[in-house]
Amino acid sequence: MTKRPATPAPRLFPRPRRRRLAAALTSLSCLALVAGCGGGDGSAVENPFLAYLPDFDAPDPVSALVLVSGVTFLPSLADDVADLLDLPKYQNTPVSIAWLQQNFDSAVPNSATQDPLRSSRAVVAHAAGITGRGQVVAMSDSAVSFTHDSLAGRVSVFSTSNLRDEHGTAVASVIAGNSDDFIGTAPGASLLAGDFLLDPALTAMGQIALNNRAVAWNNSWGYTTIGLDQTGFNDAFNYGPDGQAYLAALDAYAAYGVVVFAGSNIKLQNAGLMDGLPWLRNTLEAGWLAVMNGVPTLNGTEVTGVHLVSNACWEAARWCLVADGTWNAATGGGSDYAPTTGTSFAAPQVAGALALLAEAFPDLSPHELRIRLLASAEDDFFTPDATVELADGFIKGYSVTYGHGFLDIEAALRPIGATRFAMADGREVATEDMAFSTGGAMGDAMARGLEGVNLAAKDQLGAGFAVAAKSFATEAAPLPLAETRATRAMHRDLAAARTAPVNPLARSFEAFAGHAMEMTTPDGGASASVMLGGDDSYGVALSRRVAEGVLNLDLGLKLARDDGSLMGFSDATGGGATMAAVTVSLSHDLGNGGFFALTGEMGMADLATPTAMSRVSTARFDSISLDLGGRNVFARDDRLSVGVSMPIAVSSGEAVMDVPVALGAGRSEMRSLALDLAPTERQVDLSISYQMPMGDASEFLLELVHAENYGNRAGVTDQAAVIGMKWKF
């Protein structure tokens, strides 16, 4: 259409023509329908100006329990997404592939899925409660029917176009529409609308958008008679004060917000002047996005291909995205909707996406949000032609055809690239380096101490996330009782254990992951045990009887190194603990009669300090056990015993994490978290053991064990029954 200034002025060049970039609304003229049609099969076009660089492998996404502005991306979110997609307002069913093929492009593949809210993953943001609430989006277009059901009360019109068609209404609904029958990309956002035909109105809208801190300024129009070269630039901006004022408004707004321009619906061999403007004026690039229209083919949620129904990105490739511009959008002033397609309705989807991100990441600038959209765009369906460093150290490949790829709002809401914590001592620690494990003697101490605490992390693009602190702590998972008891029985000399005098200190390393060699003097007055469990787990224990009589008193000393499975912390850098303990035992042995043994152990452990911790104190630990029994109970030379014990557990100690803690609403502060190393509940074992000889060379064993708070974890139980026979050959 011809641009008509209010008061025509003499010009050295013909006044350029502008065109709206919708292929059609059903109410538009046949001429507009023809202008929107384009040939070609959607295959990649040759690159006439970009130097080819090797393929770029994008960073692996971070997967964890991640909170975005208080919203948790958990498996339950998928159920919420499915529930929304079942609602009629989320189903773009009147807009079908058949309609698109019939009216525009018969080459659209039959396997394509036509649903912009699904393909862009805007529905995920909505399910997570992110709607663009509190955000402002500006738009320059034709007249907007602000009384339409989907727009009423949320559009401020500052200038009205002479074009009274429904193009502006449809664009507005794609950005922020919301009614019982329709929902747009950012239904919680507010709109500022103005005329696109007159430079004074465009200039005014740039100023209004800047004054109102609009995150995006959508433009679903472009020039039809001038190209992307210096002549075209001069014709548009350098002849007359209106063009110069408009350029100044673009400069001023783009220095703060993001100008979104739709590309051409006609397949050309170059970008248009406005979508490609940063090619000529590179200072605009940081605040500019170009958008093309494409029909995606989906495999689940993955975009496996895109059929362009518009121009390629061409010179605009470095700041270009593709989105699905086929909608059943608002029309008229009441509650009517009509099928439409074009870059005009792909661009406002991107503008709405910026509003969603602005709500989710209130600390990021519009320019930083723009980077997130480019960095997260789905690009697996094409081979990059070149790369660009979007942020320090973050390089992304892009295509001359598809730009950075297909709009993916969900990916933009999740962490992009490496995530890190800023520690109190000035270090930056990668999230994966914060992971640590705790020994069984600590049980659930870390899980209890970190419950409800979220740590504030930032991804590679500076977005803030809150990560559940307890997700970094892994409790040692004790082996099932049946396995540990059976293994111990297989490695013991059952006959010697049955007939030997009571030696309560002989099994000093039962709690350790390793095998111990036990030696006892014939009279039971002294014993030694050596444990070998690998490179990082070993120890020696010595004991001696210091008093003998009605009660025997044994004292012992144990020195050990644990790899972290029993005591202390371990992470990717190593870990474990150095332990020293004294043992005391009171026992009485009646020879072939009854016996009892009461054994206690107290010690200290020097614990390794994992990356996640600022400091760790020396830990104290203890254990206690009581065994009662007798011999010759049911048969000659048999042995029956009943025991109750509390295995090794930390009794006191503290670890401190000086970390950034997320407080909600995008806020965080450095806090010193003091964590008690003692478990909430101690493990208690109840056991019955019966052993008898089956001949000169065989032994029978029956053992029943019940453990409460197994692994020093409150409420966890385990049971085991071991029946064994052992022969000597």
Helix content: 10-25%
Backbone shape: elongated
Quaternary structure annotation: single chain
CATH topology of the largest domain: Rossmann fold
Number of helices: 15
Architecture (CATH level 2) name of the largest domain: 3-Layer(aba) Sandwich
Structural domains: how many: 2
- Let me know the number of strands: 38
CATH fourth-tier homologous superfamily of the largest domain: Peptidase S8/S53 domain
Report the sheet with the most strands, covering strand number, pairing sense and barrel closure.
Answer: 14 strands, mixed
Mean pLDDT comes to: 84
Structural description of this entry:
- This protein has 729 residues and is an alpha+beta fold.
- The chain folds into 2 domains: 18-29 and 107-413, Rossmann fold, CATH 3.40.50.200; 481-727, no CATH class.
- Helix content is 19%, strand content 36%.
- It is built from 15 helices and 38 strands.
- The strands form 8 sheets. Strands 20, 23, 24, 25, 26, 27, 28, 29, 30, 32, 33, 36, 37 and 38 form a 14-stranded mixed beta sheet that branches. Strands 5, 6, 7, 8, 10, 11, 12 and 13 form an 8-stranded mixed beta sheet that branches.
- Helix 6 packs parallel to helix 10 (343-360), helix 7 packs parallel to helix 9 and helix 10 (343-360) crosses helix 11.
- The chain is elongated and about 115 Å long.
- The N and C termini lie far apart (102 Å).
